[in-house]
Amino acid sequence: MDVSRANPEKIPWLPSSLLEGATREPCPRCGRLSLTPWILRRDQERHVWRRWVCIECQFTEERQEDESG
Q1: Number of folded domains in the chain?
Q2: Residue 8: what pLDDT?
Q3: pTM here?
Q4: 3-class state of residue 50 by DSSP
Q5: Helix and strand counts by DSSP (H, E) for the chain
Q6: Which residue of 13, 36, 61, 67 has the lowest C-beta tally within 10 Å?
Q7: Domain of 37?
Q8: Cα-flanking dihedrals φ and ψ of residue 37, to 5°?
Q9: Across 11-34, average pLDDT
Q10: Does 1 score more than 50 pLDDT?
Q11: Which CATH number is 46's domain given?
């Protein structure tokens, strides 16, 4: 099955293009080099998390960030 054709319409609040110089990684869902860091948040224990989003298939994942930086 072609994942790129199985995706729903674009979600308006997710980024649709990469910023120049942005970090990119392969997306675990579609395999394209379009997974990029997006927003930061803190949970109730005050840990910092960053949401990563694929600009191609709109897959999202959260990763804990190092707070020393």
Answers
A1: 1
A2: 60
A3: 0.76
A4: strand
A5: 1, 4
A6: 13
A7: 3-64
A8: -65, 145
A9: 90
A10: no
A11: 2.20.25
